Amino acid sequence: MAPGRDAMTDVQVIVIGSYNRDHVWRVDRFPQPGETRIGRDFTTGPGGKGFNQAIACHRLGAKTLFLAAIGDDGNGAQAQRDAEADGLPCRWKSCADAPTAATAVWVDDAGQNEIIVHAGANARLDPAFLDGQRDVFAGARVLLVQMETQLATVRRALELAHAGGAMRFLNPAPVHADTDASLLALCDVLTPNETEFAALCAKIAGAQVDPDKLASLSDAELHALARKLPAPTLVITLGARGCFVSHADTGRLQDRHPCYRVPAERAQAIDTTGAGDCFCGALAAAVLRLEGQPFVRAVRFANRAAALSTERPGAAAAMPRYDEVIAHYGG
Length: 331
Fold this sequence. Notes:
Blueprint: E1 13-16, E2 20-26, E3 41-47, H1 49-59, E4 64-71, H2 74-86, E5 90-95, E6 101-107, E7 113-118, H3 127-131, H4 134-137, E8 142-145, H5 151-164, E9 167-170, H6 181-184, E10 189-190, H7 194-205, H8 219-226, E11 233-237, E12 243-247, E13 259-262, H9 275-289, H10 295-309, H11 322-329
């Protein structure tokens, strides 16, 4: 556990989620079933949705604390070194009965990726561990959580943050089979991508949506679909088509309109791994940095940070710093 509890009394953002050790192969194209491809390059490094988002938030200037589970193994020790190297404060649950989570990632020449994850210790991050961290929940202003851990842990995190008065961001990735409306209602901002949004619409609202056609829907159609989910604000990320914001009411989060689109930013993408995580971490950091300003400005900043991350290889390693985003895109 690092650093000590007294050092985290001023935490602004709590990120709860997964740490994975990523093993990344670069290939010209993805292999077909039964086919062997020769990789052009291989690297290993830190990843996991939770860690990626925490690093993004931390590098963009928010005082961030990461809560996660790791195995009592070499990769777990490496996780702690990864966090320390970036100056990211963490509280780890060390597990003797599960290995540190690991992923296999293929990245092709177009910058697209395919990923396989073994949950390992991430599945051992439980509500009881969070209950032991009440000292930081009492003062944090933002919570950011995903779904690469137990669903009960996600729910408990949202409940603790609600009790402490923090703004709650839920990135429903990957969508858990037992996700229900009551869980979504616990968050303030829900940030699905097209596939996750379609899955939630089907499960929660009984609405069948083609994720490949989502971006081509009108604003009114997208807004109507978004309002079928109980989260007050949705930010649906649409890849190269930018993102769509839907609020439950006009004026929420200082925005002038109940729904709108924010276009994607220019980028020379070489690796999209972790871009969605960068967006989520950047959005959490931006609502603090741009406090009192319209939410659209935070979304625009998150778009820029995510675009810049695609110009670098890797996941956590690709997360940009605030001055880099400003230098690249301006204020």
